[in-house]
Design goal:
Structural class: mainly alpha
Largest sheet: none
Shape: globular
Helix content: 55-70%
Number of strands: 0
Distance between the termini: 22 Å
Length: about 140
């Protein structure tokens, strides 16, 4: 692919990835805290439980990443949440640190890596941060 084409589209694709990843994290939060969409595993979830606290973080930081508002720090927190979810929720009870497919932790570890990449790359041009001039080109 032509380098100029990559240079033109890469920031826009970064914005699309940020929007998609932020939306997915936000939806995790709404499922845990508000029961929508309904997920049976989150029924009767206590807000003060580790899953409830994770839901609050997912809702708030997912929304920030989705909107691209304070996107770098929000993505950093979201990355840490993904890593913690992987280690605490998947590795600790089942072992297999290097084999997330055996622990059901593929999504958690993927979140950790995607959000860390967004922390490094920034929110892209289609973000509130860019609109307010808070990002570097």
């Amino acid at each position: 692919m032509d380098n100029s084409l990559c240079a033109t589209w890469a920031p826009r694709i970064t914005s699309l990835i940020r929007i998609g990843a932020g939306y997915m994290l936000f939806i995790h939060g709404t499922a845990k805290l508000f029961g929508t969409p309904h997920v049976a595993a989150f029924e009767h979830l206590q807000v003060t439980s580790i899953f409830g606290i994770a839901g609050i973080i997912e809702l708030v930081f997912g929304a920030l990443v989705l909107l691209g508002l304070f996107a770098r720090p929000a993505a950093f927190v979201a990355s840490g949440l993904g890593a913690a979810a992987y280690l605490v929720g998947h590795v600790a009870p089942k072992g297999h640190f290097l084999l997330p497919i055996l622990t059901g932790g593929e999504t958690a570890i993927l979140y950790a890596f995607v959000f860390f990449l967004l922390f490094l790359y920034g929110p892209g041009p289609w973000s509130l941060d860019a609109l307010m001039g808070r990002t570097r080109s």
